[in-house]
Amino acid sequence: MLTWGQLVALGDSRQMAGVRLVSLTKNFGSVRAVDNVTLEIRDSEFLVLVGPSGCGKTTALRMVAGLEEATSGEIWIGERLVNDVSPKDRDIAMVFQNYALYPHMSVFDNMAFGLKLRRVPRDEIKRRVGEAAQMLGLPETLLTRKPKELSGGQRQRVALGRAIVREPVVFLMDEPLSNLDAKLRIETRAELIKLHRRLGITTIYVTHDQVEAMTMGDRIAVMKDGVVQQVDTPLGLYTRPANRFVAGFIGSPPMNFCDATLAERDRGVYVQFDGAALKLPDDKAEAARPHLGKTLELGVRPSDIFDTAISPVVEPNEDNTARALVEVIEPMGADSVLYLKLGDIQLVASVDSGTRAREQETLDFCFDMNKAHLFDKETEATIF
After folding, report:
1. What is the pTM for the complete model shown?
2. Residue 259 to residue 168: CA distance in whole angstroms
3. Which residue of 23, 138, 160, 253 lies most exposed, with the fewest beta carbons within 10 A?
4. How high is the pLDDT of residue 135?
5. CA 209, 353, 271: angle at the middle one, nearest 5?
6. What whole-number distance in Å separates Cα of residue 109 and Cα of residue 330?
């Protein structure tokens, strides 16, 4: 592995470069793949673009790389406007989903290929490839092998090594872990986080996997239909979603949603749905009062629904408790995922594995209404 001094020297020698997208738009005929995206990625930041397939995240990344031409808008890397700069001159390195290794070349030659094109001296190429291989845990014996002789995880490390040796100012990564099995994805995810902390290179990472996004990103930009819905830290997205889409996309298992109405009683403001009535905390009640009488949408995360007998957070009472039928139980080790039916509403609860719940039995569950969310039915905007 590189010494601390070498890592510091590498960090000190590189140029500073954030990335700015200004009103960036991309049309494919009549289809708008990226719609007026304005986004700033700070120097050394690890920003994740996340969203469902077809949301425009890869198209946005390819425009930063220069592989797609923007229909309108500006792309800045550091202090340079790069719209008309060729990909090879943007000082970026891209890691693809399919690794994009040359099958007839050795690992060494794959990693060195970009440096040879730039006529970097042979000794410098050998130094950079050796340091990158060390950093990624690739033994010297692998450097003479062809890609077909490597495992999926090793191929991904080679692809990362090829990007590292270029010493770019920006890394662009397009779902680089999607071809790995579940265990290897988790391991490689941790390696990527450590790698970013060592090198401090500005990174834009595209994925459709919200768990990947939550565990890796300094900040996350959630996209839908070409539009950035919200940019925030992982915790910010989870606790303060801007709208129903973000609330439902972030979190696993996903948030529960149901139609609800508000009613003001002697003891406060209550959310009513399918026979249940749950009292809102005072701060949420104030935000909810302007919406009395309207049909809204209540959102509650599975982790905020508890078996009343073993609730570690909420003290069960008549204002936060409802009775539901337990339809299916999925044991997950420390936790159990319960599929509940409350009237005609389907809910999912993630509870302690010590739950007394049994399938096809009814049970009282309490809700942490301090963490509940309410959404406007028409605009889908967050009320709280």
Report:
1. 0.90
2. 50
3. 23
4. 86
5. 70
6. 49
Tokens found for residue 237: 């997205």
What average pLDDT score do residues 231-235 get?
Answer: 98
Higher pLDDT, 183 or 38: 38
Residue 80: both structure tokens together: 């340079």
Query: Is there a contact between 58 and 28 (Cβ–Cβ < 8 Å)?
Result: no
Name the helix (H) or strand (E) containing 158: helix 152-165
Q: Which of 300, 285, 307 is nearest to 357 (CA)?
A: 307
Question: Half-sphere exposure of residue 222, counting CA atoms within 13 Å on the CB side?
Answer: 24
Contact 272, 260 (CB under 8 A): yes
167 neighbors 15 (Cβ within 8 angstroms): no
Strand pairing category for 46-50 and 268-273: unpaired
Average pLDDT over residues 313-321: 95
Q: Measure the CA–CA gap between 77 and 345, rounded to whole angstroms.
A: 49
Instruction: Pick the closest to residue 355 from 345, 373, 340 (CA basis).
Output: 340
Q: Inform me whether the pLDDT recorded for 186 exceeds 50.
A: yes
Q: Tokens at residue 87, please?
A: 């990909």
DSSP 250: S
- Cβ neighbours, 10 Å, residue 28: 11
Degrees (nearest 5) of the Cα angle 275, 279, 280?
Answer: 130
Residue 332: the pLDDT is 95
